[in-house]
Amino acid sequence: MSQVLEWLETESLGRVGLFVTRIQSVARRHLAKKTVTVRSQAREEQRTNARLFAQVAKMQSLVRMFVYRFRAARKAQRTLIQYCPHFGEPYWYNPHTQVKSWTKPKVLRHLDSYSLALPEEGLENVVNCSYCNKPAEVNCNECEDSMCRVCYDSMHCKGARLKHRSTKIPHCAYCKFQVATKACLTCIITDPARGTMRESVMEADRGHYCDTCFIHEHDSGEKALNLHKQRRKDLKNILAYSSQAYLVNQYLHQRIITSHHFEDMVQSCEECNSRSSTWRCQD
Question: Which residue ranges does the record assign to the B box-type domain (predicted)?
Fold first, then answer.
C-alpha cells in the first residue's frame, strides 16, 4: 500500500510539474510579448518626439531669425538718421560710425529711420554768441546780448552785471542746433507714434520745434512732396536753374496745413505769418 501511495505521489508531482512548466512557458511568452510591445511603443514614441523636437527647433530658428532681424531693424531705426536737405536727395547717416549712405540701408528692411529736414543753406535759424561766435545758450535781459554759458559767466562775474538776469534760449529738440520757435501742444500731450522722431525725444521737450522741423513733421503739403520724389526732383531743377522761379517760390507764402494745435514761441514773420522772424529791418 505504501508503494502505491508513493507511486501516486511521484506521478502527481510529475504531472503537476509538467503543468507548472507549461504555465510558466505561457506566462513567459505573454510577458515577452508585452515587453516587446512596450519597447516598440517606447521606440516609436521616441522617434515621434525626435521628429517633433526637430520641427519645433526649426520653427524656433525661423522665429528667432525673424525676431532678431526685427530687433536689428528697430535698433537701426533708432540709430540711423535720414537727413532731407532742402530740395536735395535724402541720405542716411550713422552718428556712431559716421558713415553716410545715399541708399536706404538694408538693415532697416521695411522700417523707416528717424527723419530730419535740413534748412536751406544760409537760412538757418541759429543764434551765435556775441563774443566767441559759438552757439548761444542764454540771452542777457539787461545787456540784450546772446551769449554762450562760458562767456556769460565770465562777463557777469563781478560788479553790477552780477545782478543781470538771463533767459535760456530754447533749442529745437529734434535737430538740436536751431532755435525752437514753435511749441506744439498736441505733440506734448499725445504719445509718439512708433518709428517717428518724437519717440527719441524726452517727454518734456517733444513739443519744441524749429521752423524747419515743424514744417517737416506737420505740414501735409511737405509730407506729400516728400512722398513723390520725382515731383520734388522736378521742383528742385526748376528752382535751381531759374532765378525767377526761385523768387516766385519765396514770394508764395503757404499756410502750414496741420491739425495740431501749436503756439509761436517767438514773434512770427510779418510777411508770411508762418515762419518765425529772424531779421529786423531798421528802415
Answer: 124-169
28 vs 173: CA distance, rounded Å = 86
Specify the pLDDT at position 175.
87
Helix (H) or strand (E) holding 243: helix 243-251
pLDDT at residue 238, rounded to an integer: 63
Buried b (16+ CB within 10 A) or exposed e, 233-260: eeeeeebeeeeeeeeeeeeeeeebebee
Place of cell 510577458: 31
Whether 252 and 246 have beta carbons less than 8 Å apart is answered as no
Q: What's the confidence (pLDDT) of residue 57?
A: 93
Number of Cβ within 10 Å of residue 213's Cβ equals 25
Cβ atoms of 151 and 128 closer than 8 Å: no
Q: 3-state SS of the chain: helix, strand, coil percent to 5?
A: 50, 15, 35
Low-confidence ranges of the chain (pLDDT < 70): 1, 4, 7-8, 11, 13-14, 221, 223-254, 281-283
pLDDT value for 243:
62
Question: Residue holding cell 530730419?
Answer: 116
How would you classify residue 113: left for phi > 0, otherwise alpha for psi between -120 and 50, otherwise beta?
beta
Say which residue the cell 512770427 belongs to: 268
End-to-end CA distance of the chain: 158
Q: Model's pTM, two decimal places?
A: 0.67
Using CB atoms within 10 A of its CB, is residue 172 exposed (0-12), middle (13-18) or buried (19+)? buried
What is the C-alpha radius of gyration for the chain, rounded to an integer number of angstroms? 41
Give the pLDDT score at 247. 54
The amino acid present at 7, given as its one-letter code, is W
Secondary structure of residue 180 in the 3-state scheme: coil
